[in-house]
Amino acid sequence: MEAYKNPALSPEERAEDLLGRMTLREKVGQLTQRLYGFRIYRREGQNVTFTQEFQDEVARYSSLGTLYGLHRADPWSGKDFDTGLDGPLAVRTRNDVQRYVLEHSRLGIPVLFSSECPHGHQALDGCLLPVNLAAACSFAPALLEAAAEVCGKQLRDMGVDLALVSMLDVLRDPRWGRSEECFGEDPYLASQMARAAVRGIQGAGVDVVAKHLCAQGETTGGGNASAARIGRRELREIHLPPVKACVEEGVSAFMAAYNEIDGVYCHANPWLLRDLLREEYGFRGFVMSDGVAVDQLDAVTGDRAASGALALEAGVDMGLWDTGFEKLEEAVARGLVSEARIDEAVRRILTVKFRRGLFERPYVPEDSPWQQYTPERFPQVKALAEHTPVLLKNEGGLLPLAIDKPLRLGLVGPNADAIYNQLGDYTPPVRGGVTVQAGLEALIGGEKLPVALTVHPGCAMFSRDAALLEDAMAAVADCDTVVAVVGGSSSRFGVQGEFDANGAMKEQTAVTMDCGENVDCASLALPGDQLALLGRLKAAGKRVVTVLIGGRPYEMGEIDRCSDAILCCFYPGPTGGEAIAKLLFGFCEPAGRLCVSLPDETGQLPVYYNAKDSYRSMAYYNASRPRYGFGCGLSYTAFDCRLEAAGEEGVSFTLTNTGGRGGWAVPQLYLHRRQGVATSRARQLCGFAKVWLAPGEARALTIPIPRESLAQWDLQMRHRVLPGRIEWFLCDGGRELLTGEFTLA
């Protein structure tokens, strides 16, 4: 028996034996991921046939390395419940693909299946979560891990091997359309959430491809895939901590980012992909390219084969939809890259296949329970959604809404009853979901609340219509309080425009999206008549509860002036409407804190809290900075804090609920270095806790200070703990609870 067929040998030994038996073309085939999986089949009823393109690709390489997006469904892929893979077809077709590949592979090499999972599986009946920007507001990595594990189990049961998961981008400019994919503006919080996502999905048996490497959130003017004009100190302090955290958690792979850093594309950056990732961090997995990004290197090389060689030499192991890796045979013949470097990459891919057991178990059971992973069966998803909304304002204790007497409640706004506007980009067609309107109606009816609900669209999201505003005001004329659900949308459903080769929005002929991939904004103002709607409601003397649902921060100055209460939700996922309804009436307690700062107006960007000392005083005479900062978030109760001990090891304190309701406290510990060799940040998060306290309950807590948080990158770019004074701040809800100082010897 050939050694590579012997399961008693290690994956590495088997991969080495198989590699020695392969032709150059077969090797190249393992590195290409050229096919769009959703285009390799046609469905007619319950029958699925494969395209000639797929058959030709298998014949060309005598196998396939990886197949992307077999299960993907969305307007770009053109797959829905009539044309895509749902029910028994989802697993059956996956097995049929694998069977076809194995039957036409000279050496019997199975294919890996990769799938998008930025906030759940982008497949029909896929398990969907709140987007990252919402999830990070939970400050609850354990809840994210549990919900991600549910997604991972569904992916596993569907036969997916590689989950492509957004988790590395740190948000520095909210004009960027992919803001929703970030775990906020802070590297420590982003690292903790990334760790949780990796543990959840990989713990379920699916390998994570963490994206994007690196600094894609450091855009130029908020432009998608634009240059990160930063040096290595900023890169190391802000953008690399989530990368390092993922390596430490044992992540299987990384996806390189589209952007350049200081003039060098990430896909062509050996310092990033080799020196730092592999030599310094000790990463042993593989690196995948982003969609057609290898071909974009033609801007540097002017030659498609040279682009493939450049990416491969830099450290990219697997392509995605590009033709640059397809031309690696030519690149070897021209002396642009060695076969030894190809062997290095192939070895990594084969090792994954052996480690996953695909040679012995290439198929998944066709009675797989993958459709059981719903919010109703798995409350982990609902639990996360309930922790994501952030209560920013609550004048006069308007919330929770009083139900001790009859209440005439108005519900208006373009996001009040629009399920796709709760889900974000990279979303499949869905069969259900709970909007804010549905959540309120179910709660009012189910609990028999004395509430008369009046519903009106209020206004369109993007267009202006004075008559519609007038009609809305007439509809809610008798209402005491009005809930206005406003914001934006990343929904591709009903979009008018054209998608690019990588699935990004290329051009909108009529605006239906203000967020999503390649949907960047020059202004963070609410679009259309939404501000006018809030203004009219306030001028009419209504008590206005503004619920913000969107994929990025918005200008808060005018929203704040027109609102008595504000609930910021970002995209809360398919059960978000239920969570919001429960919060409005006090059936659950506010638990979220902002993971990103919200500006007064666009012109004051950047407003992230962790700016350098050298420019932290950037305050314009006509704009505060920011309106609501990182870590802000109110509760329906009150807390008191007493210091117990503090030093370089951590801060210990006693937290007491002094209010009349149980509630969530989220104490956050920040540091500021007063002495050092380089400019420090105004504040930098180094730890946090999340605790439920009943009325009158006290809890002794300690937030340790990681040794790494005390270190600074010195002038020689060594990460060292240097002597000097350190200020610390214990905060929650945007206010300081305790402060102090200690000195490092």
Describe this entry's structure for a reader:
With 745 residues, the chain is α/β, with parallel strands linked by helices. It contains 22 helices and 29 strands. Helices cover 28% and strands 20% of the residues. It has a six-stranded parallel sheet with strand order 3-4-5-6-7-10. Strand 17 (543-549), helix 20 and strand 18 (565-568) form a beta-alpha-beta unit. The chain starts with 10 loop residues before the first helix and ends with a strand.
Please outline the helices and strands:
Layout: H1 11-19, H2 24-31, E1 41-44, E2 47-50, H3 52-61, E3 66-68, H4 88-103, E4 112-116, H5 132-136, H6 141-157, E5 162-166, H7 187-203, E6 207-213, H8 232-239, H9 241-248, E7 253-256, E8 260-261, E9 264-265, H10 270-280, E10 286-288, H11 293-296, H12 298-301, H13 304-314, H14 328-333, H15 339-355, H16 380-386, E11 390-394, E12 407-412, H17 436-446, E13 451-455, H18 466-475, E14 481-487, E15 496-499, E16 505-510, H19 530-539, E17 543-549, H20 557-561, E18 565-568, H21 576-584, E19 639-647, E20 650-657, E21 663-665, E22 668-673, E23 684-688, E24 691-693, E25 698-704, H22 707-710, E26 712-713, E27 719-720, E28 724-732, E29 735-744
Parallel strand pairs: 3-4, 4-5, 5-6, 6-7, 7-10, 12-13, 12-14, 14-17, 17-18
Antiparallel strand pairs: 1-2, 8-9, 11-18, 15-16, 19-20, 20-25, 21-24, 22-23, 22-28, 26-27, 28-29
Helix pairs in contact: 1-15, 2-15, 6-7, 6-16, 7-9, 17-21
